[in-house]
Amino acid sequence: MKKRNDLxxxxxxxxxxxxxxxxxxxxxxxxxxxxxxxxxxxFYTESEKFPEYSEQIVSPDGSLQHEMIPQxxxxxxxxxxxxxxxxxxQTAQAFVEWLEEQLNxxxxxxxxxxxxxxxxxxxxxxx
Length: 127
Known about the structure:
Number of helices: 1
Distance between the termini: 49 Å
Helix content: 10-25%
Structural class: alpha+beta
Largest sheet: 3 strands, antiparallel
Strand order of the largest sheet: 1-2-5
Strand content: 25-35%
């Protein structure tokens, strides 16, 4: 065991961005506590479902008319899960504290700039 005098005075963290890392938008989150007592977080984006096919009518002269897609009474929204995280309790708590700090800073920036659009986190998110 190291004595107090042998402990380093500071620790430097070096950040490496993996070439495969992508910046992804997030429209929502889904998850919960798994059987191991960890928090599973699945971030998703939402978009309209693409039709399975579309068709165009070909006129006798060979020109294409308007494009048609099949009509249905059901509205489909696709939730694409692009990022998944697995956090232990300590990391989850650190994440919550970090996120609260960021939101507080963002709110202070908006309050100091009256001409900026008002940020209302989660105002239109329904889960």
